[in-house]
Amino acid sequence: MVAEANVLVIDDEETVCRSCARILSEKGHTVTTALNGEEGLRQFGESHFDLVISDLKMPGTGGIGVLRQVKERSPQTAVIVITGYSSVGSAIEAMKLGAADYIEKPFTPDELATAAALALERRAERAAVALERRELIGEKTSVLVGRAAFREIIEGVGRDVYVPRRREKGLRYSLAGQCPEEEVLWGEIRPVDPLKVFFFDPRRRVAAYPSAWSEIVSGGETPEHARVIAGVKRCDLQALDALDRVFLEGDFIDPFYKAVRDNTLIVTSDCSNPGPSCSCVLMGLSPFCEEGFDLNVSEVAEGLIVEAGSERGGKLVETIVEGAQQVAPSHLEERHERRDQVQEIVRTGLADLQPEEPYEELVKHAADSPVWEECAERCVGCAACTQICPTCHCFYLHEQAQEKARVEGRYEIIRTWDSCQYPAFARVAGGANPRKSVRERFLHRYTDKFVDFKEAYGVFGCTGCGRCVDVCMGKIDMREVLYKLGGTGAARYCGVKA
Amino acid sequence: MTPNLTNPYQPIRAQVEKVIQETPNIRTFVLRPRTPIVFQTGQFIELTVPGFGEAPFTPSSSPEIEEQMDVTVMKAGKMTAALHGVQPGEWVGLRGPFGLGYPIGDFVGKEILIVGGGVGLAPLRSLFFALVHRLDMYERIVFCYGARTPSDIVYRKAILEEWPKLDPKIVFRMTVDKGDDSWKGNVGLVTTTLDNLDVSVANSVAVVCGPPIMMKFSTLKLLSLGYQPEQIYLSMEKNMSCGIGKCGHCQLGKYYVCRDGPVFSYDQIKDARETWD
Ligand SMILES: Cc1cc2nc3c(=O)[nH]c(=O)nc-3n(C[C@H](O)[C@H](O)[C@H](O)COP(=O)(O)OP(=O)(O)OC[C@H]3O[C@@H](n4cnc5c(N)ncnc54)[C@H](O)[C@@H]3O)c2cc1C
Ligand code: SF4
Ligand code: FES
C-alpha cells in the first residue's frame, strides 16, 4: 500500500481536473490542479510532488514539455500522461521519456486510481533501491589518481607509512620514505609478513610492577602518531577482522592492540598476481576488498582508483584535488574485469583442491580419521605455520628474568607469541596434557581454524592466505590435508607436492 | 580509574599477611591487596611472584570479605614452589578477578552436593562460605571430601571439627584413599562418599572440584545416580596464561576456560574432546 502522496493534475478541461481530484482525494492523496502546462510547472516549482498527471494535448506547453521539465527538475517524481484515442503514439513517446504510465480518455475512476497507485508504488521501490545504492557505493568517495599523487597523500598522513615494496623473496611492507617509486607494487599478492606484526608484536612489555602502568604507555612504546599500512590484501584484511574480535571484544580489551589499531589507517589493494598457495576463494573470499578498509586501491591502466571505505578514508580522498579525475564507468568496468580475471586465476588454481564438503563439516566429523596421523608425520613441530599465520594470536606472559629487576625491585611482564604446536602449550603442572602427541596438536590447529574459532568468534580462523603452505618445513599443505580428509578421490597425497 | 580497567595485564600489589601450612605441600596465603578485589565465588585471579611469573588460583576465602583474600596453593612446579617461599610481610602481584564463578543464584532452594578432592577444596571453601552466609536460602549442603592420606586434608580443623557442627542443614562425608593409625574415618576413593546418598536428586545440584581423574569418576558416578548433565558443575583446570580470553592456552573446544569458565556445567562440555585430558 502506498501512503498518501502529493499529486499535481494538469488538464485544460476543468471537469477532468475536478474528477481526478475527487477520485484521488478519496484515496487519501493531496491533490493540486492546474489548467495549463505553464501554471502546472509553476505549481511544480513551488512544492514537492510525488506524482504528476498531465494531459498530453494542451494549448501552450503540452504534456511532453511538462514531462521533460518535471523529469529534469525531479527525476524521482512519477508522471502519468492522459491521452485521447488519437494520440496513443505520443503517449508511447512519453513513456520513452520516462513517464510511468498513460491512461486513455475517457477513463473510469478505478483505472485512474490503479494507475496512480502503481506509479507511486514503483516510485517508492526505486527510491528505496537508490537509497540502498547510495549507502553501498554512493557515499563512498572514489577518485582516479596517479601513483605518485597517491603516495604523497598517504605519506602526508603520518610518520610511519608502509607501502608494499618489491623485494627479493616477494613483497614486504616497507617504510615509504625509503622506497623508490618503481619498487612500490599496488597489485601483486600479499606481502610476506602477516599483517598482525603491526598490531600484535612478537614480543612486548605489557606491564611493569610495582610501579603504575601509566609509565608503560607513556614510555613511547605505543605510537601516538598516525600510521598507514598500505597494500593490505583481502586475506589479511579478513585476518585483521578476526584479530579485532579476539583483542577488542569481550570484557577485556587489549590496550596495546587497540592503541595501534586506532592510530592506523588501512589501505587495501586488489591482487593482480596470486601465487600457488593463494586460497582466499576456498575460504569464500575474493582477491579484492569491498569493505572494511579506510582506503582501497585498484590499479587500472590510467592510474589508481582510490575508494574510501570509512569516514577517515573519505576525508582523505576529499583532500585529493590536484591531478585527481572522476572515476568514469569505463574505469569501474576495467576494475571489474581485472578483478574477475584474478578471481578466476585463483579459482582455477584450486580446482582440484576443493573438497565436496565444506571444511567446517569435514573437520568436525573427522577427529578419528587416520589422515591426521599420516599428515602429522611430516610435522617437525617448528610452529612456523602459526607464527606466519595472520590470525594466530596465541601468546604467553612471562617475567623478564633479570637480576637487575630483582636488585631494582622493578619487574616486567613480557608478552611473547606462543604456539599450540609446541608440546608444552597445554601442559599443566603434574604433567597432564590434552595434546601430548603431534597428531593431537596437528588436529587441534585444524579444529580451531575451521570449527572452534568460528564458534567462538563468528569467523573462520583461516583466511586462505596460504603462508603456512609456503613456510612448512615438512611441506604439508593444509589444503591437501583437508582434501584428503574429504576422501574425494585421494588423487593427491598429503605432503607430496610437485 | 583503577589501573586494571585499562590494562588487564597489570597486577596490583598485595601484601602477604599470613602463611598457613595446611599439609606438607599445601599452604594458604592470606593476602591484603592494595585495593580490594571484589570477586564472585568460583572466579579466579592471576597471582605473580615477583621474578617468577604468574599462575591462576581461585580465592578460597569468602567473597563477602573484600579487604583480604586467601589463596590455597599446592606446590606443583616452578611458580608455586617460589610462592611457597614467600614469607609474611613480603608482597606479590594480583590481577583479576576473571571468569565466571558458581551460579549460586540457581542453587536457591536446592540441596547442594559438594564433591572435592585434594587442593580442589580451595574454591569449594569459598563456595561453602558463600552458601553458609545465606544458608536460609538453600535446602541443605552435603559436603563430600576425599584426601590422599589423613595428613593431606586441607583446612583440617575446620573440616573435621568446626564446619560439621555449624548447622543441621550441613552434612559432611569424609574419606581418605589410605588411612593411618590415627584415622578412624572412612577409607576409599572420594566416589565412595557418593554411595547411599540421601539426597533428592531432582532438587539438587552437584559441584565438583579436584584433580581431573577425580572429577571424571565423580561425574560418571553422579550421572549414574540420576544427576542430569546440567545439574553438575565442574571447575575445569587447563593451562592458563592471560586469564582474559586472548592467549589461547586454556582453549577447550569452542570455550576459553578463563573466559567462559572456569566453572562449567557438565552439559556444556560433555562433548568437547579434551574435557578429561
Ligand atoms: C582456574 C584455575 C584455578 C586454580 N586454582 C588453584 C588453587 O586454588 N590452588 C592451587 O594450588 N592450584 C590451582 N590451580 C592450579 C595452578 O594454577 C597450577 O598448579 C599452577 O599454575 C602451577 O604453576 P607452576 O609454575 O608451579 O607449575 P609449572 O608446571 O612450572 O607451570 C608453568 C606455567 O604453566 C601454567 N600452568 C601449569 N599448570 C597449570 C594449571 N594446572 N593450570 C593453569 N596453568 C597452569 C602456568 O602459567 C604456570 O606458571 C588452578 C588452576 C586454574 C586453571
Ligand atoms: S590469498 Fe587471495 S587475497 Fe590473499 S594474496 Fe592470494 S589472491 Fe590475494
Ligand atoms: S588463559 Fe589466555 S585465553 Fe584463557
Give a description of the structure.
The complex is a heterodimer of chains A (498) and B (277). Chain A has 498 residues and is of the alpha/beta class. Chain A folds into three domains: 6-137, 3-Layer(aba) Sandwich (Rossmann fold), CATH 3.40.50.2300; 142-349, no CATH class; 359-495, no CATH class. Helix content of chain A is 40%, strand content 17%. Chain A has 18 helices and 15 strands. Chain A has helices at 14-26, 37-46, 63-73, 88-96, 109-138, 147-155, 214-221, 234-248, 255-262, 311-319, 329-349, 359-364, 371-376, 384-388, 403-408, 438-457, 467-471, 478-486; strands at residues 6-10, 30-34, 51-55, 78-83, 101-104, 142-145, 160-167, 170-175, 203-209, 227-232, 264-269, 295-300, 303-308, 395-399, 411-417. A seven-stranded mixed beta sheet of chain A has the order 6-13-12-11-10-7-8, with helices on both faces. Chain A has a five-stranded parallel beta sheet with strand order 2-1-3-4-5, sandwiched between helices. In chain A, helix 1 (14-26) crosses helix 5 and helix 2 (37-46) packs parallel to helix 3 (63-73). The radius of gyration of chain A is 32 Å and the shape is elongated. The relative contact order of chain A is 0.09. Chain B is α/β, with parallel strands linked by helices and 277 residues long. Chain B has two domains: 12-98, Elongation Factor Tu (Ef-tu), domain 3; 104-235, 3-Layer(aba) Sandwich (Rossmann fold). A seven-stranded mixed beta sheet of chain B has the order 10-9-8-7-11-12-15, sandwiched between helices. A six-stranded antiparallel beta sheet of chain B has the order 4-3-6-1-2-5. Chain B starts with a helix and ends in an 8-residue tail after the last helix. In chain B, 53% of the residues are buried. Mean pLDDT of chain B is 92; it is low at 1-5. Chains A and B meet through strand 9, helix 7, strand 14, strand 15 and helix 16 of A and strand 14 of B. The complex binds flavin-adenine dinucleotide (FAD), iron/sulfur cluster (SF4) and FE2/S2 (inorganic) cluster (FES). Iron/sulfur cluster binds next to helix 8 of chain A.
